[in-house]
Amino acid sequence: MRVLMFGLTFGALMCTSVPLVSAQKDTAKKVTAVLLGGPDVGKRAPDFSLPWANREGVGPIESPYQLASDRGRTVVVAFYPRDFTKGCTAQLQTFAEQYDSLFGPDVTLVGISTDSVTTHSRFASSLNLPFRLLSDPEQRVSKQYASKDSGGYNRRTVYVIGPDGRVKYRNMKFNALDPQAYSELRTAVKAVRGS
Asked: How far apart are alpha carbons 47 and 172 in whole angstroms?
C-alpha cells in the first residue's frame, strides 16, 4: 500500500507545472503535463444520465438520456467546449453533414458540453443537428471521462462505446478542423459495427 501511495504521490508531483530555466538568466519556460484518465479502451464506460435537447426542443426532464438505455448499440460520446463557438460549430456541423457516412442509423451519437439545455436546443436547431446534445454544467460526467478542463469547459474528446458497454476507441484531443480526425473516427465506428 505504501509503495502504491508513494508512486501516486510521486507521479502527481512529476505532472505538475514546473518552470524550466535555460542558460540565460531571465528566460523561463513553463512545461505543463496533461494527466489523462477516463476509461481506457477495453474498459467499461461509466454509465451516466443527463438532461438533453435536440433541434426540436428540450427533452422531458423526467426522461434524461441514459447511456445504459443504449446498451446493445454502438454509442459515440463527443465532449466539446461550448455551443456557438467556431471550433464546436465546425465539429458538430461536420457530424451532421457526414452523419450517415460517419455513424449510420444503428449508432447513437450524443454531444456533451456545460451549456444549458435551452442553449443546446437553439444550437441544435440552428445547425439542424440530427442528434442529442446533453447538458453537464457541473462536469460530473466530463470528469469521469477525463474531458473536464480546468477552465470550466470540456476538452474536445470523443469516445466510441461498443454494444457491450466497453470503450472501443477514444481520442483525447479530437481536432475539429482536421479531416484525419473524422476519418479515424469513421474507421473506429465501422470496426465496432462490424464486430
From this structure: 19
